[in-house]
């Protein structure tokens, strides 16, 4: 809980620097509470490109803040915790793309999950997030799709779009992959009427148990609008903060129950993004995001194509 003194300072700093704060659902709850907008990665990328302000504070991991900078290059983008990175964002070798381009020529689209470095985005044809990947892959004219870097989201999309030849890479999210199907089965045994909601970064065997698969926003909506009383949530624990707020606002706080796998999924990088650091980066004007010019143009092209095709 932040002190009133810090909250007052935060409001003064926001005004002084004409700043808007964006936060992902996985960051610490104080950081979410300070944000003007909290959302999934697609919502936040779109928001960054449309806001009219001089400074953006991005409470999230590096690839998210970099995407905001690419889509809004005239703004100063600050990261409260500049070392917060996503390990999956680095799980791709250029050779994988080169070999696929060699084999399939013009009839190949390299589809890159936004959880990737700018260099990888620049190698690719289009970016996607978990909330728009299916729609974008369906809309691409190419039949052959190389989906990078996430093997699990890629596998899910392959099943959802059987008309395409979707090829996979071997990247993964260590936090989502650690959720074991045994844990989900145990929870289902204890709460047989619970709805299993899972993020598509979970392994296939976990997704097979899910009644709902979707992005962080999708999972939150499903839990808030669902008529059921119990939910088993297979994604990072941070989403519970928003779920609880919305469920309370809907008058369902006493009725609904939410369960997470016993080895509670926490993203160690997102968890380091705290409310105090949000205030500190504004105060010190620290953690500014700079994009390597060698990859900026290519990465921006892939992100802009995502925004276009996702509409
Ligand atoms: P969303 O796009 O669903 O917010 O997911 C981002 C992410 O990093 C999931 O681990
Ligand atoms: Fe990356 Fe996984 Fe953290 Fe999402 S939860 S930011 S994919 S490490």
How many strand units? 12
Structural class: alpha/beta
User: Separation of termini?
Assistant: 38 Å
Please give the share of residues in helix: 40-55%
Low-confidence stretches: none
Question: If you compute it from the alpha carbons, what radius of gyration comes out, rounded to the nearest whole angstrom?
Answer: 19 Å
How many structural domains in the coordinates?
3
Q: What's the helix-strand series?
A: HEHEHEHEHEHEHEHEHHEHEHEHEHHH
Please state the average pLDDT score: 97
Write the CATH homologous superfamily of the largest domain.
Answer: NadA-like
The geometry reads as: globular
Describe it.
The protein has three domains: 4-86 and 271-284, Rossmann fold (3-Layer(aba) Sandwich); 88-173 and 293-309, NadA-like (Rossmann fold, 3-Layer(aba) Sandwich), CATH 3.40.50; 179-264, Rossmann fold. Helix 6 (118-123) links the parallel strand 5 and strand 6 (126-128). Helices cover 46% and strands 16% of the residues. The two termini are 38 Å apart. The longest helix is centred in the C-terminal third of the chain and has 17 residues, at 293-309. The mean pLDDT is 97. The protein is α/β, with parallel strands linked by helices. Bound molecules: 1,3-dihydroxyacetonephosphate and iron/sulfur cluster (SF4). The site of 1,3-dihydroxyacetonephosphate (13P) has 12 residues, from helix 3. The site of iron/sulfur cluster has 13 residues, from helix 9 and helix 14.
């Amino acid at each position: 809980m932040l002190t009133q003194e810090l909250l007052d300072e935060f409001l003064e700093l926001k005004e002084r620097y004409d700043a808007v704060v964006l936060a992902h659902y996985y960051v610490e709850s104080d950081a979410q509470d300070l944000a003007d907008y909290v959302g999934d990665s697609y919502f936040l990328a779109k928001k960054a490109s449309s806001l009219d302000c001089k400074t953006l504070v991005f409470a999230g991991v590096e690839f998210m803040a970099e995407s905001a900078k690419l889509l809004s290059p005239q703004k100063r983008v600050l990261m409260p915790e500049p070392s917060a990175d996503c390990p999956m964002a680095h799980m791709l070798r250029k050779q994988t793309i080169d070999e696929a381009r060699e084999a399939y020529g013009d009839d190949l689209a390299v589809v890159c999950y936004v959880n990737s470095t700018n260099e990888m985005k620049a190698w690719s044809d289009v970016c996607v997030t978990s909330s728009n990947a299916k729609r974008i892959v369906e809309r691409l004219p190419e039949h052959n799709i190389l989906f990078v870097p996430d093997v699990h989201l890629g596998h899910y999309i392959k099943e959802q779009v059987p008309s395409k030849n979707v090829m996979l890479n071997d990247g993964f999210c260590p936090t989502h992959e650690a959720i074991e199907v045994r844990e989900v089965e145990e929870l289902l045994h204890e709460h047989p009427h619970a709805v299993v909601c899972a993020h598509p970064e979970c392994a296939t065997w976990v997704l097979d148990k899910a009644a709902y698969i979707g992005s962080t926003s999708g999972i939150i909506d499903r839990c808030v609008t669902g008529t059921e009383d119990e939910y088993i949530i297979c994604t990072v624990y941070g989403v519970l903060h928003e779920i609880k707020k919305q469920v309370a606002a809907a008058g369902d706080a006493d009725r609904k129950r939410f369960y997470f796998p016993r080895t509670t999924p926490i993203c160690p990088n997102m968890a380091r993004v705290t409310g105090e650091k949000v205030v500190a980066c504004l105060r010190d004007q620290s953690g500014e995001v700079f994009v390597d010019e060698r990859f900026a143009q290519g990465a921006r092209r892939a992100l802009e194509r995502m925004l276009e095709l996702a509409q």
